[in-house]
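so my prof wants the structure for this chain in the tokens format not the other one, which i didnt know existed until like an hour ago. anyway here's the sequence
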Amino acid sequence: MISLRGVSLVYPNGTHALDNITVDIAKSSFVFLVGRSGAGKSSLLRLLYHEEAPTRGEVLVENVRVDKLKRSRVPYLRRELGVIFQDYKLLADKTVWENVAFAMQVTGAHTRDVNRQVPRMLDLVGLSHKHRMFPSELSGGEQQRTAIARALVNNPKVLLCDEPTGNLDPANTGEIMELLLRINLKGTTVLVATHNASIVDRLRRRVIRMENGKIVSDEDRGYYFLGDGTHGLGQTHLLP
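here's what i got, hopefully its the right format
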């Protein structure tokens, strides 16, 4: 599903964001990417949706060499990916319904399909009753659920979440994580970058820990969903 091979990323200002990263993430898995601010979590995610290109190495998503992707093909890649940000990135002048619909409209989706799919996504995230509201009228948790609906509306195979609960209180954090778990159980691969140790400890999923642009440990905690209806017992792998 996702594979990085010997990936390094150096920004134009000389910052070494990633250093020789090699990792595989299986289809339908739920993985936490953890580490302090500046550890390289967001940089790794940006490589996956081609916001950045690696300085060295290979990046594959669904067997597609993302690092070699032509600019004209990037929109097609992003149809396979849903991305959720800490600051929601909703369009302030559009309603909840319009924000979610917009993600389909920019791909050229037929109006009939938009009108069928958007209500389904709003029902999934529990916002059907607020479809006419604007982002400024929503709580932080509701804004993030709107962002999740938008990320899912094109039925992506992979959901990338960059600090999705960073601006939320504990109650809303719990609700968002439960929603992400439900999405994962439907078969979507979910990768969550976070520094929230409490949710990582509580949910007992695979944890990839980063420091200074390197992966320093890769641990499967407890039981995890494999995507074929089975579960596995986790193991810890400390890297040199």
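also thought this was worth mentioning. Residues 170-185 form the longest helix (16 residues).
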